[in-house]
Amino acid sequence: MFLRRAFLRKQESRTLWIKSFLFLDGRFDVILLVYNFIQKDSGETLLKMCREKNIGTTLMKTNPVGGYNLIKESMEALEKQGKDVPPVYKMILPRFKLKADKAAEYIKKHNLQNNNEIREAAIRFVLSNPDVNAACISFRNFDDVENHLKLSGARLTAEDRALLAAYREGCGPFYCRHACGQCEPRCPYSVPVNTIMRYNHYFGAQGREKYAMLEYAKLSGRQADLCQNCDGYCERACPYGVPIQGLLLLAHQTLTLA
28 near 155, Cβ under 8 Å? Predict the structure, then answer.
């Protein structure tokens, strides 16, 4: 309860800071912000404020889908490399796997197998908000261009809402909120949690594997291998229940050049 209240107070102060800096200053015509169907509360507040001040809005990180599959693949790879897995992984991953198995059951029950379908619904979700002016979406090939362009002007359906609600319920705990920053101050090793999880997002969700790995390599001395010897302060501090210590360890495995 204390953490939740502290989180809300921080969010309120952040909103006040944004209001005074962006809107009373008056120097900006458009802003770029994070908004998606899982990380939406602060975004909706900011979008409303922008509408009131006639400030244009462009979205990033509109697609929180795909992280779970990367996590599953990383866990399976670790299991195959059993002899190389540090003892701490054997302690953390079973706890992590409980949530993963529960999510897998939820995915099967609600037929959440088609990630492309969920991604399209996620984009329709953000574009259905009348306070959104544009969404910045990564294209990997010409097929992506065609598939995404058809979503412009598309309406969010009742089926889309049900699909996104089911995904949020089943897989939401595996989505580390972008630029949240709630757990990072609790780390005794000063591991840059937000930065590492952003690089992991580049690798898994955006397909920028080489860039993500090279950037992670620059964090020499502050990488997530330090999380092996930790009691999980970050995980206990997360207001969303994200198993962040396990995610960081898996990110280290994914992003490390070997």
Answer: no
